Amino acid sequence: MSASASADNGLAALIQASGVKCSDASKGTGCTAGDVDSGDFYDVELSPACGEQGFFAGVAEDKGVDTLDAVPSTGSRVSTTARLSKGQLVCVQGIGRAGQNPLFYYVVAIPAATVGKCKGSALCETYGDRPISGMKEMGSEACHVAGPGHYAGNCAQGWVSADVLDLFSDGM
Questions:
Q1: How far apart (Å, rounded) are the C-alpha atoms in residues 56 and 80?
Q2: Beta bridge partner(s), residue 91
Q3: CA gyration radius for the chain?
Q4: Is the pTM of this model over 0.85?
Q5: Are 105 and 159 in contact (CB under 8 A)?
Q6: 3-state class of 122 per DSSP?
């Protein structure tokens, strides 16, 4: 990892992977996803950390959910990056809002055993490691912890509709 990549705590990689545009990419502020010119866009709040203070959720949709490489918007071409099964634990790294309402989340499926607060948690029995299919390969390394709260390798990630997740608003 380069010095600049470690200094931004994964922000640059998250901006690139999520396809958002930021007015200040070094700080991850002023970020949007979608088509700003047509008015079909979302304000995006980014949070690359998936450690002790991370924002976690679980896939609540019975049929599972496809993760997308971009937020669907006017003129966009989105493709599926993976299919997450019901009960998959995810870390929320981006929130796409229209006004105050979260409509899309950028999530990454992480191994439950790597989340310290999962040990002995009933929540992590309901939500944990589930089958992931149709994943676009992003290198040869398996998804792994790259540093405290940061993951690298072939982690299933992408945008999902806000209504398919059970958010852990009170933490784990």
A1: 21
A2: 56, 108
A3: 15
A4: yes
A5: yes
A6: coil
| The token pair that represents 30 in the structure block | 């002023």
Phi/psi of residue 12, nearest 5 degrees: -60, -45
How far the first Cα of the chain sits from its last, in Å, is 30
What's 17's DSSP letter? H
Q: Print pLDDT tens along the chain (172 aa).
A: 333 344 467 899 999 999 999 999 999 999 999 988 989 999 999 999 898 888 999 999 999 999 999 998 887 889 999 999 999 999 999 999 999 999 999 999 999 988 888 888 888 889 999 999 999 776 778 888 888 888 888 899 999 999 999 998 766 6
- Give the residue carrying structure tokens 């002023």: 30
CB 37 within 8 A of CB 86: no
Residue position matching structure tokens 């040869």:
140
Output the CA torsion sign for 9, 28, 17, 155: positive
Q: Which residues contact 119 (CB under 8 A, 6 or more apart)?
A: none
Q: Are 51 and 140 in contact (CB under 8 A)?
A: no
- Report how far residue 141's alpha carbon sits from residue 152's, in angstroms, rounded to the nearest whole number: 8
